[in-house]
Design goal:
single chain, 58 residues, mainly alpha, 3 helices, 31% helix, 0% strand
């Protein structure tokens, strides 16, 4: 089934060279629906806490 032009424009930021959706490394394994593109740099994610930030708090 072919995708509409509108769908392609919406997902163009997420599509990789192979034409499939690709997410950021941090978002790949995340269960939350706030996934970001592999092209974006994650500055702040409310659902992600790194081990480094947890050590700094203690």
């Amino acid at each position: 089934m072919s995708r509409s032009k509108k769908w392609r424009l919406e997902w163009a930021f997420f599509l990789g060279e192979n034409g499939r959706r690709q997410y950021n490394k941090l978002c790949k394994g995340c269960v939350h629906p706030c996934k970001q593109s592999f092209r974006a740099v994650v500055l702040s994610c409310p659902h992600y806490l790194s081990r480094r930030s947890q050590k700094r708090r203690n």
